[in-house]
Design a protein that fits this description.
Radius of gyration: 26 Å
Structural class: alpha/beta
Strand content: 5-15%
Largest sheet: 5 strands, mixed
Shape: globular
Length: 494
């Protein structure tokens, strides 16, 4: 897993509210024991959730919700970096950005652009430059941008905001403290702990879903929940901040080359080193340079899979995407997801009932057990050939994609796979993209995949979402005769 954990805005706001509610006597000082006890208990609850194996339900979130969520976060990141990019103090939230936008552009610090513009040019152009030299590919563009921006600011002695302006002094001996949970007040803490754990599940697993869409992999929700539980238990014991998988950090990690958990370990060690006395190494970094990097992250997180086809989306998916996008930007990430999921479930209620009642069934069978027949070809010619059929029955939507993936995972390797969509009753954005990802994965493993579909309505949806174009028109057939002829040719069965 390539996710990076740490404090997130929703969780920070929640624990801040709890600290305001729990104070020591009449001093109005935060009750730190209470706060860290809540964090510890939330971690314990997360571990319990992981053992109950209910975290995997996050995979049933429709793609239109995830896409709206990703694009919304991307827009937030881009807009919130405007002030830092032009040499002003950053705004606290997106509403302040919009309210003060005219003021910001009237008061641009030109000196900040001496850093910001070269940094952003490096970030956007480095990949194309590095492709011409393998040695350069090993140099991450953000690191190069940081060195370049910091050097320019130092040499020109620019009067602009720096990271050091935001850093306070730290006593390294006070970093390591121990807070034993106050179990005598457990009934007082259990409610806030459940709220914090619930938010951690949503925050972490949504970030994991975003990472899945970027990497083409599938995270283990239960393992992720267990890991976050252990991290929060440790945070509660040692006076740390409550954590979750952070979307923006995860996206940056993926886009800038992180491929294994080692990237997260290096991230944590670096932060610890800064706390223990190496803060001077980052104090001289201009905020304009950091803003350029985050601007690139915001651009990268936008869902470029859905944007080219957004005008052709089914109305329901388009509606959900727009709603989630705007609520994410203007209100709250988690509220946006909740609204998107609600509308998607209402729209697909009939299909969900079919899924629950197991009326549909996707399965992989040998071609000999189907009505796909090769003309003028002896059965002996194909009996030793691994040609199978993935029979899709019923709706292909966000509620059935997990079954689709599981069926393939449980199957043996094969030479040719025919995806039979003749019994598919409907498709949505999640179903089409999940099927496309599955086909690309199978092709990447060396197998050939053909899609058969006679339903004009479904074909129009597949066309609108660029499905046929992406898998290759050669591999999509709406005639059994043409399909079998093509398979005969590629398998040399003539």
């Amino acid at each position: 897993m390539v996710g990076v954990s740490g404090p997130t805005a929703p969780k920070a706001a929640q624990i801040a509210a709890f600290m305001g509610a729990f104070v020591v006597g009449t001093s109005n000082s935060p009750d730190l024991v209470a706060a860290f006890s809540i964090i510890f208990l939330s971690g314990l609850i997360l571990v319990g959730i992981s053992f109950l194996r209910i975290s995997h339900f996050i995979h049933y979130i429709p793609y239109s919700v995830v896409a709206g969520f990703m694009c919304g976060i991307g827009i937030i990141v881009i807009l919130t970096q405007i002030n830092s990019f032009i040499g002003l103090q950053p705004e606290k939230n997106i509403h302040d950005v919009f309210n003060n936008l005219s003021y910001s552009f009237r008061n641009i610090n030109i000196q900040a652009l001496y850093v910001a513009i070269p940094s952003i040019l490096v970030l956007f152009l480095w990949d194309s430059i590095a492709r011409k030299n393998k040695f350069l590919e090993s140099i991450p563009s953000p690191l190069l941008a940081l060195i370049l921006g910091t050097t320019i600011a130092y040499l020109l002695k620019l009067d602009i905001p720096y990271i050091g302006d935001k850093m306070g002094s730290t006593d390294s001996f006070s970093i390591f403290s121990f807070y034993w949970p106050d179990f005598s007040r457990i009934f007082e803490f259990v409610g806030p702990a459940f709220a914090l754990a619930g938010l951690a599940v949503l925050d972490s697993l949504l970030s994991c879903v975003v990472a899945d869409n970027m990497t083409g992999e599938r995270h283990s929700s239960d393992r992720e929940t267990f890991g976050q539980g252990m991290a929060n238990m440790a945070a509660g014991l040692f006076g740390g901040v409550t954590t979750a998988t952070a979307t923006m950090r995860t996206v940056a990690n993926i886009k800038f080359g992180g491929k294994t958990p080692l990237a997260s370990i290096v991230h944590g060690i670096t932060l610890l080193a800064i706390l223990l006395g190496l803060g001077f190494l980052v104090e001289a970094i201009p905020l304009a340079c950091l803003a350029a990097i985050l601007f690139k992250v915001g651009v990268d997180i936008l869902d470029y899979r859905i944007l080219p086809v957004v005008k052709k989306l089914p109305l329901t998916d388009l509606f959900v995407f727009i709603i989630v996008l705007f609520v994410t930007v203007y209100e709250d990430l988690l509220i946006a997801v909740a609204i998107g999921v609600f509308f998607s479930f209402v729209r697909s209620f009939k299909d969900i009932k079919l899924a629950i009642n197991a009326i549909y069934k996707h399965e992989i069978v040998s071609i000999s057990k189907t009505d796909f027949m090769f003309k003028k070809i002896n059965s002996d010619q194909i009996k030793n050939r691994s040609i199978n059929v993935l029979q899709l029955n019923g709706p292909l939507f966000f509620g059935s994609t997990e079954d689709l993936i599981k069926i393939y995972s449980d199957s043996d390797q094969f030479e040719v796979l025919i995806v039979d969509m003749s019994k598919v009753t409907m498709v949505d954005l999640s179903g089409v993209f999940a099927l496309e990802d599955l086909i690309n994965k199978i092709k990447g493993e060396g197998s050939m995949v053909f899609v058969f579909n006679e339903n004009i309505k479904i074909k129009n949806i597949l066309n609108n979402l660029n499905f046929i174009e992406n898998i290759g028109p050669k591999y999509y057939k709406d005639s059994k005769d043409l399909l079998m002829k093509e398979i005969s040719n590629v398998c040399n069965l003539n």
